[in-house]
Design goal:
Elements lengths: L4 E9 L2 E6 L2 E7 L1 H11 L4 E5 L11 H10 L4 E4 L5 H9 L4 E4 L1 H5 L2 H10 L4 E9 L7 E5 L4 E6 H11 L3 E6 L11 H10 L5 E2 L6 H9 L5 E4 L1 H4 L5 H10 L7
Parallel strand pairs: 1-4, 1-12, 4-5, 5-6, 6-7, 7-10, 11-12
Antiparallel strand pairs: 1-2, 2-3, 7-8, 8-9
């Protein structure tokens, strides 16, 4: 088994870290730079930052946020939200992000994933996909875009396979059904994606207790474990999670 990474996620809106449930009911969760430094000191392996309002507000990613956070840490930073062109990716990477994550734009323009992987390298391109349960889909999961506001009639697992074929170096699937609930990752969804692709899968949406992190690896097949609420509101520490995983035989960097 590869080394499993812990990845706190900073959902950004109006310059602050926020967190909601099912992509709604946002509440303040702190300053992004202070949070990033805190998580680095706690032992995070990577950091994600998502400009959650960019697509809905039809604007580009706030590059100032990327620069401020990237300048304060040495952790690899994955930035997503409002990234819709090769130029956007170039600017985000130049601002200090290690990877760029695309979601809505990739669904609308799949060639963007292919062109980005060719230009910047697959290891710098993350395909993010949000989904919700829909029994009409072959896998039972339908792709949604624009912050979960628009179902697009595509099967989420088929789309994940297509993103890998296009050259994405990692996949970030988030279940709307689990987001922010702390009821556990959507293991069925995560596993369906992990079984369909060879690139690393980032488990996202719903972590609430120590067992959830273990289940995401053992049952979900994830290699990177993203969480927000449990870390932002100090329900768990990164060290607690890593020690728990190590004690259960999961390889982590302490």
């Amino acid at each position: 088994m590869n080394l499993i990474h812990i990845m706190p996620c900073l959902d950004m809106k109006e310059g602050r870290v926020v967190k909601g449930v099912h992509f709604a009911g946002l509440r303040d969760a702190g300053d992004p730079v202070a949070s990033a430094v805190f998580y680095q000191n706690e032992g995070a392996d990577e950091l994600a930052m998502l400009d959650i309002a960019a697509t809905v507000e039809n604007r580009k990613t706030r590059l100032a946020w990327v620069k401020q956070v990237a300048a304060a840490i040495t952790l690899p930073l994955t930035m997503g939200g409002g990234i819709g062109s090769l130029e956007d990716i170039e600017l985000v990477l130049a601002a200090g992000a290690r990877k760029a994550a695309m979601n809505s734009a990739a669904v609308k323009h799949p060639e963007l994933v292919r062109d980005a992987a060719r230009r910047f390298g697959a290891d710098r391109i993350v395909a993010a996909l949000d989904a919700r349960r829909n029994p009409a889909m072959p896998s039972g999961f339908e792709l949604v875009i624009a912050g979960g506001t628009q179902p697009v009639g595509l099967d989420a697992v088929e789309w994940a396979k297509h993103c890998e074929d296009l050259g994405a170096g990692a996949l970030l699937p988030t279940s709307m059904d689990g987001d922010g609930t702390r009821a556990g990752y959507d293991l069925e969804f995560t596993r369906a994606i992990a079984d369909a692709v060879r690139v690393p899968v980032i488990a996202s949406g719903g972590a609430g207790k120590l067992e959830h992190f273990y289940e995401a690896v053992a049952r979900g097949g994830a290699q990177i474990l993203l969480a927000a609420s449990v870390f932002h509101f100090r329900t768990l520490s990164i060290r607690q999670v890593k020690e728990y995983l190590r004690n259960r035989g999961v390889p982590v960097r302490l």
